Write the structure tokens for this entry.
Amino acid sequence: MSIKFEITKQNNIHFGIATAAAALVGYFTSASWWVILLFAAAYFGLVNVKLELPVKLSWLWAAILLVIGAILSVFSVQYVLLTDEDFVKTTDTVCVVNVVLALAIYLVILFITNNARLTCTIASIAILAFGFIDYFVYEFRGNEFTYADLKSAGTGLSVVTKYKFVIDYKFLYVILAAVLYIVLVRRIEVQFESAIHMRIISILLTIICVLYVIMNSMSLNTETWEKKGTYRNGYLLNFVLGIRDSFVKAPDGYSKAAVDKIADNFKETDSSYSQSDAKNPTIIVIMNESFADLSVVGDFETNTQVTPFMDSLSENTLKGYALSSVYGAKTPNSEWEFETGNSMAFLPDGSVVYQQYINDDPTSIVSNLKNIGYTTVAMHPYYATGWSRNKVYPHLGYDETYFIDDFDQTKILREYITDQELYDKIIDRYEKKSDDEKLYIMGVTMQNHGGYGERYDNFNQEVYKVGASYTDANQYLSLLNESDKALENLITYFKGVDDPVEIVFFGDHQPGLCNDFIKLLNGKGNSGLTEQELENLYKVPFFIWTNYETDAQTVDVTSLNYLSTLTLERANIDLPAYNQFLAELMEKIPAINSRGYYSKKNECFMHVDEATGDEAKWIKAYNILQYNSMFDEKNRSSLLFPYLK
């Protein structure tokens, strides 16, 4: 092996450009000056060095380059994604598994290219870019980029321009390290005498790496809360675990006989749950984007009451808090839980039902109401392709759908169509209904969508937290105040109509606000939470109001999957068989979501797999029926899950 230095004009030009670029970016990212100097020195040495290595040791040089690349790739991704505090939480074992996984990626590319230098260049850039994508996705919505997100990339891109992204010094450091690695790789010539032998060895080593990863990750779960996936499992491994968990298997004890045994306890319809004398009211459901009561997370003071009208509702109103299964994003999962009565508790973390699991005949409140003569209408003042609603809504049984082009796009608050414009559209559709038409309308708002960091000329923020200023929280609270005003207009209108009307209102999830503000509320932020503290971040307010006489009730805790059953009860509509099951389940398991369930026996929140006795029995039955409705089309219960007649 020989090492020579050949300083050339071309290399010096490359050195100058690279150093100037690093210094410029370093200035704007507040990078340490000594890092830039160290990079410049290393780059100058590498770009001018000439290495001549023994051809007989090509395999050794290739192995060294690949292992160094895998280690650097994993380190860089973890370093970019994690805070200094979380960076040290990743165990040595997890780090090794991630390096082996990265090495498998390098080996697969080597198998394809038959070129070690090209392999190292492609693999290092691709893995680092993958880490950057996760960073931006996390900044965008507050949780990690998973395999399930690949199917929802279009929706993410449609709102990504509304967010402000900041590139800090960590980005620069890992990019500089990658540049030095690629320059080193390009200075080393590695030739393989036999491409066939190289490919055979590469694939064998890939298999060994994959088996090692499988053996050391079988007991690991996909983590999607905050950045636990990155520091507990390592980001690369956590992403792969998400692929594994995207394939839903039948629950233990599942069979057609088990489904039939549960179904035998219920009738086709049941009117025993009637709550009023009203018949076939107009049913209006509002799922309000990011609408939440942050006081459930912790106490704080504002300059004025945030939602005075909603807080005042009591007469003919059932109200309280419901558990959502998502936090900060993935709205359609909340929509789906309401519509079907099913729960994300039995589906993989990170999945999006609308884009992964909707079949051609999902039974829902939409199809059930359609079967008894209701005209079913869906309204969402945003793009039809968002979360594939243009494909999903017809499957659910909606007769009419209205998207962004059907609304007055001058009625904008910040950059989204207002709640008031959606409510005006709902009122307009109600006024056009025929005298004997039974009407169901599902409205999904857009006004309060994150992020909340920009200032807007068309939005006068009137609500703010007293004391320390939190820009995003103040904007969010002001948006809630605007939603409350629009809600008052909607309720006031329907108080004045003669026909019976039921209005169901709930938030889809809590907003993704800065961790410092959440820490102010609960003392911890998003990390190190107890099960109770965690579930507080998933609570959203709801109410069911009628313009006819119904009992005033307050519910301490329920979950979104039960709201459609409560809707039918308050509307005096006979419960379909599956809703009868849900009504009984609600008595045993008052609330359940993707994070856990509320145990009446233990008077606390618990993980689903910690359930015992009668609670475990009911949860298992729920899991069996949900699997039957979603994944076993051949043996689907026609009693519990009929579709459109």
Q: What stands out?
A: The longest helix spans residues 116-141. The two ends are 79 Å apart (CA to CA). The chain is about 50% helix and 10% strand. The longest strand covers residues 539-546.
